[in-house]
Each structure stands twice: as C-alpha cells, then as structure tokens.
C-alpha cells in the first residue's frame, strides 16, 4: 500500500467483525479518510446539537453498522458534521452535512463495481481504493471544509495615495479635459464660467453647449480674440487700432489715430470684417 493510504489496513482490521455487507466496506473507507483529514467521530445519529464537551475518537462507534442506513456524527474545526449513507438500488449515496450553515456535499458509489469482497486486504476488497480515496477527498470532504470568505471574494482594492495613485484633487488638477475653476465637476452652465482665471474670457462662449452665452447674448469670450473686451472695461490705448495686443510690437503704416484711409477710425464701416489678408499691418 502507498503512504497515502497509511492506516487504512489497520482500520479494516479493527472493525472486521462488524463488516457484514459491501456497503460497510465503503463506510469504513470513508470514515478512515475523515479521521486522516482531521475529523473525530462523536457517535451515531443525526442530532445537530453540539455541547462542546464531546470526546472525539478515530474509532467507529459501536452499532455503526446495525441499520440499513448510516448516520455518524463528527467534529472538525469546531463545527459539527453529520455523515449519512443511503442505499439506492446499486448505489450508496453519501452526504456530509456541516450543521453550522447546512452546507452539504455528495458522493455516489456503485457498490457492485467498486467493492469486490467483504474480507481480505484492502486491495482485495476495494481494488480501486486509490482512485476512490481521491473521489472522497474532492467530492465529499473538500466542498464542505474549504471556507471561503464572501467578503474576501467581493472586496475590491482601494487606491492608496502613498502608492502613487493620485487623489481626487490631484486628478482634477492634472485633468486636461477639466475646465479651470469648475471645481472638478465638469463644464459649468452658461453663466457659471469664472472670470478670475482668464480676464478676457477667451474661448468661453465656445464651451457653452446651449449657445446662449456668447457675444450679443449676455456672454463673452468667443474665438474672436478681443483684448479690449473684459470685465474691467479695458479701452484701446490712445492712437492704436482695434485688435492691437498690448505689449506686442506695433509698426503702423499710417499715423496713429488716423484710422484706415479716413473711414471713420474705429467706428464700424463696411469693411469692419475685411477679407483675410486685407490691409493687415501685423502680418
């Protein structure tokens, strides 16, 4: 026998007088694996109460095979487990119930195909005992002994600023799509754009999705840059033409204050929006 089934032969020898049916052979094999796994038997029956003073044993209790059905009580990890075995035609169905949460596992074994005899060594009674032991482990024991915390399964990692993840404030500060001064809440309404960031409100009206905050509608700051339109009522420097940027190089082609060819100076004229390149002294 391999080391994985160490002690199985001894378990059969200890209860050889109580083995009368092939079903008994399977119960002994399941009991052996449970005790090998760490379970301790505390008697027969299906009582789901546990006082905490029970003395568990590696031995099968007296009277374990006196009934057509099997019912054994075990303790493992502070929990009470009940092993039941019921025959259905040629199949012996095992149920292992953890009473604390009523979690149950199942194992169905075809008695005639698995058990060859009720006496002899393990290889004679259960030729495929190695593969059956593996089934007991995977199908009967592990499903009710592996306690997976639902909290650990659903918990999502949280961002830790100390690990390089930007905070919400830092994210807003470096967000290229955030409108400055909007407080990280996206684009404000038509009248909600602050004037403190850009005194000329340059381009603000083009961010108005409703189109009601542009020039002529109570708003300002379209794509036509006008340095003299601002919250402080800036006026053009004396003698400088409309559109001249303060501080920029200025080389007029006619005397300051004379306007364009005597067409009224800064007053609107038919050429207030001339074609591109027409009379452009700044090119």
From TrEMBL:
Listed GO biological process terms: proteasome-mediated ubiquitin-dependent protein catabolic process
InterPro entries: PI31-like, PI31_Prot_N
KW Acetylation (keyword) present: no
A GO CC term attached to the entry: proteasome complex
Limits of the PI31 proteasome regulator N-terminal domain: 17-150
Region (Disordered): 144-200, 256-283
Biased composition (Polar residues): 151-165
Keywords, in A-Z order: Proteasome
Protein name per its UniProtKB record: Proteasome inhibitor PI31 subunit
Organism field: Thrips palmi
Gene (name only): LOC117649030
